[in-house]
Amino acid sequence: MNHIAKKIFETRKSRGLSQEDLAELSKVNLRTIQRIENNENEPRGKTLNLVCNAIEIHIEDFQSQYSTLKVKKHESAINNIFLVVLNIILVCITNYLVLDTESNINSKIGAFLLSFFIPMFITYKTQNLSGTDRIIKFGSGYILDLLMAFIILGIPQAIATTLTPCLLLSVATL
Hints:
Blueprint: H1 3-14, H2 19-26, H3 30-37, H4 45-55, H5 59-99, H6 105-125, H7 131-138, H8 140-152, H9 155-160, H10 163-173
Helix pairs in contact: 2-3, 2-4, 5-6, 5-8, 6-10, 8-10
Protein name: Helix-turn-helix transcriptional regulator
Keywords: Membrane, Transmembrane, Transmembrane helix
Organism: Flavobacterium muglaense
């Protein structure tokens, strides 16, 4: 049951009204009241106004909560897109430093340092997350890259290029 339907149902029950009484008071069809309370449809506009006036609920309460839910959905989508892009960037940095044809010992040392300090910074900034959540959100790119390295390069070559140790260090730090 969505929030609006639940609130209407609870308020109607607390006032001792039947669905028929509410339909009569609000001048809305009984079937409409039943659909709202059974979560078959969500009241909007005039219907919501009439029902709220009949049971003396402020319609603004619903509208502010509904807009908050919409904002949270958008924020969630933006956060997920950000996490995907961040994982791709982190993996690309490590891969570039280790797998580049001109990579030397300095770039491999840089890859090791970044494989420790970037996840350490993420851990510092996300202390409120559990380790499992942190690995799922920020380490999934590393884990997928490790699997792809094993498949494409083979295990011996992935270890020889120092890609495997860098990725394992990153995941372990998270």
